[in-house]
Specification:
Blueprint: E1 2-11, E2 14-24, E3 29-33, H1 40-47, E4 55-60, E5 66-69, H2 81-85, H3 90-103, H4 110-122, H5 125-138, H6 155-169, E6 173-177, H7 185-196, E7 201-205, H8 209-215, E8 218-223, E9 226-231, H9 234-269, H10 276-288, E10 315-326, E11 329-340, E12 344-348, H11 355-363, E13 370-375, E14 381-384, H12 398-403, H13 411-420, H14 437-450, E15 455-459, H15 467-479, E16 483-487, H16 491-497, E17 500-506, E18 513-518, H17 522-529, H18 560-611, H19 621-648
Parallel strand pairs: 3-7, 3-8, 5-6, 6-7, 12-16, 12-17, 14-15, 15-16
Antiparallel strand pairs: 1-2, 1-4, 8-9, 10-11, 10-13, 17-18
Amino acid sequence: MLTVSQLTKSFAGRILFEDVSLQVNRGDRIGLVGPNGAGKSTFFSLLLGESSPDSGTIAFDKSATIGFLPQETAAAGDETVLELALAISPELTQAQRIIHQHESGSGDDEAAYHDALHIFEEHGGWQLEPKAKRVLSGLAFRDTDFARPARAMSGGWIMRAHLARLLVMEPDLLLLDEPTNHLDLESLQWFEEYLKSYPGAILMISHDREFLNQLVGSIVEIAHAKLIRYRGNWDDYIAQKAAREEQQLSAYKNQQKEIAALQQFADRFRAKASKASQAQSKLKQIARMEKIAAPVAQSKTVRFRFPQPPRSGLRVITLTDVDHAYGDLVVYRGLQFEAERGQRAVLVGPNGAGKSTLLKLLAGVLPVQRGTRELGHNVRVGYFSQNRVDILNTAHTVLESVLDVPEPVSEQTARTVLGSFLFRGDDVFKSVSVLSGGEKSRLALVKLLLDPPNLLLMDEPTTHLDIGSIDALISALSQYEGTLVFISHDVHFIRAIATSVLHVTATPDGTGSRLTIYPGDYDYYLDKSKAVSARLALTAGATLANGHSTKAISARPAPGLRQQKERKRAEAEARKAIAQAKREKQQRLHEIEMRIATLEGRLKELTAALEDPAAYERGGNAVAINRELSAVSAELTRVTHDWETAAAD
């Protein structure tokens, strides 16, 4: 369907792609990954014909249709949301416009109206409209939104409408640039399931590891101006990449040792008449070798010791008998909540259950309608959400904005942290006023990390971040010594950060949501909740997968003693499970370590044998030793990877 052959592209004196090739066949599901600035969006631009390669070719099948969803902006005119979702061709769009004008009484050309009806029917418009409504509903549009002008919606909803248009259109090849950025959790899950049965091929840029794990059959990495294809999903790619790099390093080292041994023999005996011909033979052997390139050094993860907030009291924040409602809609009634110093809790639960409302109540953004909100000793609250960008001074540059904090840092430190969040080079001198919404969000995040409060409340902090920046944020929050409560749809981020889970779910009788506390990490929550998948568990309701009900802690808890016993029993269960897992892990690690020690011993013996000139005196002996050395080295690489996997679990 798509063939990219020997493509080269430079930009501003820098080679983005050099002699790269890629084949995309019908039904392929491919994730395009690489650090920010590697050239992912440029590659899409080349495929779409918006820019031209310096050399090489890009060829599509003649009948192939292409659909593209950009990352940030997409246009919307006077059409309604439904009309935009149905705008799969210019002819159909024009026909829709004439039909709408005629039926609303603003058009009186009967002939044009009947022609439009014919075109609409010819393009399958009557069948497409129900499909468009189903897709829009899956992306969380309400029926009342269908007739709204698209341009009256926010940018995120316009992007959803364009995504709906592509899904209705069903092109042979979907090019998606960060398609999950503007989706809430339930829409994301619907979209993920929809794509699993999508009939065409998909080439997507995404920084959502779970999304890639669920959907793609191969990963194409842009690295060092090359396209490197790996079979499997994101986790497979990580394992294969590590193994590939280890194998390349091992092969390179072995070859260098072999070259050194051959050279040593040649240097030692070239002046000796009886050995001169053998010495010359060794030099020719070196010359004939296909040299293995030295592995390219990997870019280092940004390491920076973020400032720590002042220490708070043990009890950080308490909500007591809190009620909150939006008109007649009761969200909480008699809510009890308490966070302790150092807690890192993730809020999960279905849309509309009250996760964001709870975060805003904790932040003081929403007033307590009944009950009390009490901050502990020396507590300073920081709330990160989309409207946090309002605190940015648009007259400042990016660098000036970061330096304008109560506890200023050096310019070098500021630029290091900005670089880890995608502001590199001259980007730091851009005015805040010209930044995109995503850039402003990242800048606000940097300011927050450089002057952190001791109670940090974050709503979807990983949106608009690439994988490297998400890892930098994980690094920063892992160092963070304050208290953190957050909402996220990034399963990898949650697993790396959360030490407890708060499940929010609405009660069936409509008397307000309740909290279920899981005093363990996200995997502990998955185990206890019996969830089908890590993603689905994020929006699970009161009764989770397979009919298992949660052990709920009511909004009005039992008297103090009983509540304390429940909590202690849950904590004891968690400790017992963790201890058992730890014992099993230690036994597994011990077994692997014994195997590694055996292999390393044999590797030393073979290396010493290969370095002995006597090994080259008997024909084929050095080849046999080197063959066994390669086999042992490969086995050691595999076993070491097993150890790393077991140690990381």
